[in-house]
Amino acid sequence: MTVKLGVPSKGRLMEKTFAWFDKRGISLIRTGSDREYAGAVTGVDGIDLVLLSAGEIPRELSAGRIHLGVTGTDLVQEKLPLWEQQVEELAPLGFGHADLVLAVPQCWIDVDTLDDLDAAAAAFRIAHGHRMRIATKYHRLVHGFLRDSGVADYQLVDSQGATEGTVMNETAEMIADITSTGETLRANHLKLLVDGLILRSQATLWRSRVAPVDSAEKHVLNVLIDRLG
Ligand SMILES: Nc1ncnc2c1ncn2[C@@H]1O[C@H](COP(=O)(O)OP(=O)(O)OP(=O)(O)O)[C@@H](O)[C@H]1O
Ligand SMILES: O=P(O)(O)OC[C@H]1O[C@H](OP(=O)(O)OP(=O)(O)O)[C@H](O)[C@@H]1O
After folding, report:
1. Quick one: pLDDT at residue 47?
2. Rounded to 5 degrees, what are φ and ψ at 221?
3. Is the CB of residue 97 less than 8 Å from the CB of residue 194?
4. pTM value?
5. So what's the pLDDT on residue 35?
6. Which end of the chain is more exposed for a tag (fewer CB within 10 A), N or C?
7. Given this chain, do its domains 3-97+203-228 and 98-201 carry the same CATH topology?
8. What pLDDT does residue 70 have?
């Protein structure tokens, strides 16, 4: 059998992942047409390349369908409640840096900290008869962070993209999303809470703790991990 390596199938993470492996003498290549999600690995024998959405790689690792996978810390910690038992971090890759943060409208001049938010959320509920809405795709991480911070008067609304636009579109009062340069937040008139950093994330190579390995696969994994070290 072969070792299965899952990597993002498109965009910035895919290109940088290919370059990271290339520097270590392992070529990941896409085969077939531009739109065909097929690939191959050269430089080490016995590895199959599996091109996947970055968001699906945590699930594939935890199901043991891939042995190794590249995706962000944020996606692993959001999607796998018991992530430390299911995956092992082999190497941070030094790109895909993004911070998961809480952000509120710039015009909320009295709200800069979590304490301010707590007070504003309570006042919002009294004034509007419903809880303040926070748009995000990171439900588990945001709930955990706000629980630990003692903020309770809120509800999460799901947003799988263009999250910063939800405030202007009036489907949420504030957001929790990843930011890198901060440009998207600024363009949408949002500001960070000063103590609202939930998680620092970067692209990382993970190994599944649950994928079954026979002796041949174990050998290939050891050779590969040695080369990447
Ligand atoms: N602006 C950014 N700068 C750096 N890293 C980012 C940025 N946006 C997203 N990322 C990181 O890239 C990874 C993939 O992000 P995202 O959830 O946007 O997936 P995607 O590329 O939309 O994939 P898919 O929709 O196929 O699941 C995440 O780990 C995220 O932290
Ligand atoms: O701080 P910045 O450098 O502006 O980057 C942050 C933006 O990048 C990501 O969006 P992406 O481009 O992946 O689009 P999405 O809204 O579909 O997730 C993220 O969700 C932010 O919106």
Report:
1. 96
2. -60, -45
3. no
4. 0.95
5. 79
6. C
7. yes
8. 98
Number of neighbours of residue 47 by Cβ within 10 angstroms: 23
Which CATH code is given to the segment(s) 98-201?
3.40.190.10
Distance 47 CA to ligand 2 centre (A): 32
Class of domain 3-97+203-228: alpha beta
Closest ligand to 17 CA? 1
C-alpha distances in Å from residue 81, one per residue of 165, 184, 195, 205: 28, 29, 24, 18
Instruction: List, in sequence order, every residue forming a beta bridge with 30; answer none if it has no partner.
Output: 39
The first and second tokens of residue 197, run together, are 């950093």
Strands 203-208 and 87-92: antiparallel
Among candidates 187, 174, 171, which has minimal Cα distance to 146?
Answer: 174
Is the CB of residue 202 below 6 angstroms from any atom belonging to ligand 1? no
Binned at pLDDT 50, 70 and 90, residue 112 comes out as very high
CA of 182 to the centre of ligand 2 (A): 9
**Burial class, 87, CB count within 10 angstroms (exposed 0-12 / middle 13-18 / buried 19+):** buried
- The radius of gyration of the chain from alpha carbons, rounded to an integer in Å, stands at 20
Residue of 180, 199, 200, 202 best suited for mutating to test ligand 2, as the one with most atoms within 8 Å of CB: 180
77 lines ligand 1 (CB under 6 A): no
Domain ranges of the chain: 3-97+203-228, 98-201
- Nearest ligand to the CA of 161 is 2
Pocket, ligand 2, Cβ cutoff 6 A: 161-162, 164, 177-184
